[in-house]
């Protein structure tokens, strides 16, 4: 309780989602500078992945008793 370990553990999934988003954004920026054809081929799967992550986060935030809720979607629910 004194070190707020519960809060730290609950923040880890959100930090992982943020790091995945930053990694994919950096990957696309690098690929667009190196080769536009490869970047175009990589943009489609990355776009599908990003849409999936955003949808699963936003759609689960509409219900407080959803079983697939993450700490980020719970925070969106309270907002």
- Taking pLDDT < 50 over at least 5 consecutive residues as the criterion, the unreliable ranges are none
Shape: elongated
How many distinct beta strands? 0
> Helical segment tally?
3
| Average pLDDT taken over every residue | 88
What percent of residues are in strands?
A: under 5%
Radius of gyration: 16 Å
The biggest sheet amounts to:
none
Give the helix level as a range of percent.
Answer: over 70%
Q: Give the helix/strand class.
A: mainly alpha
Distance between the termini: 26 Å
Order of helices and strands: HHH
Q: Looking at the chains present, what oligomeric state does this protein adopt?
A: single chain
Structure explained in plain terms:
- It is elongated, with a radius of gyration of 16 Å.
- The model has no long low-confidence stretch (mean pLDDT 88).
- With 79 residues, it is mainly α.
- The chain has three helices and no strands.
- Helix content is 78%, strand content 0%.
Features:
single chain; 79 residues; 3 helices; 0% strand; elongated
Which SSEs are present, and which pair or pack?
Elements lengths: L4 H30 L1 H24 L11 H8 L1
Short description:
With 79 residues, the protein is mostly helical. The chain is built from 3 helices and no strands. The mean pLDDT is 88.
């Amino acid at each position: 309780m004194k070190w707020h370990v519960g809060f730290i553990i609950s923040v880890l999934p959100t930090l992982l989602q943020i790091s995945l988003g930053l990694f994919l954004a950096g990957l696309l920026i690098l690929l667009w500078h190196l080769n536009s054809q490869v970047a175009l081929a990589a943009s489609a799967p990355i776009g599908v992945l990003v849409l999936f992550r955003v949808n699963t986060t936003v759609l689960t935030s509409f219900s407080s008793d959803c079983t697939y809720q993450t700490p980020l979607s719970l925070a969106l629910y309270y907002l």
